Amino acid sequence: MLAFILVAMVAGIIASIAAVMLGSSIWAALALYMVTGIGILLLVLVRAFICDAMQERSMTHKAHQG
After folding, report:
1. Is 19 within 8 Å of 32 (Cβ atoms)?
2. 14 with 32: CB under 8 angstroms?
3. With a threshold of 0.70, does the pTM exceed it?
4. CA distances from 39 to 15, 23, 48, 50, 61 (A)
5. How many CB atoms lie within 10 A of CB 19?
6. 36 exposed, middle or buried (CB, 10 Å; 0-12, 13-18, 19+)?
7. pLDDT, tens digit, 9 for 90 and up, residues 7-45
8. Nearest Cα to 4, choosing from 52, 47, 56?
9. Contact assessment for residue 15 and residue 36, using Cβ atoms and an 8 Å cutoff
């Protein structure tokens, strides 16, 4: 989980630095940092739920076969 948080932080930092370099205000960069980080964490969470559901379905399918 720590790796996912670090990836979200780095992506947010890169997005906010790009916003500042393009002339946005520091508040716009901060907002972009937060939105990017939260968005990536939500995508990772959705992916984890999907993988967990698929793994559980596979285990259930194997249990019924043999």
Report:
1. yes
2. no
3. no
4. 12, 23, 14, 17, 33
5. 19
6. buried
7. 777 877 887 788 778 887 778 877 877 888 788 888 888
8. 47
9. yes
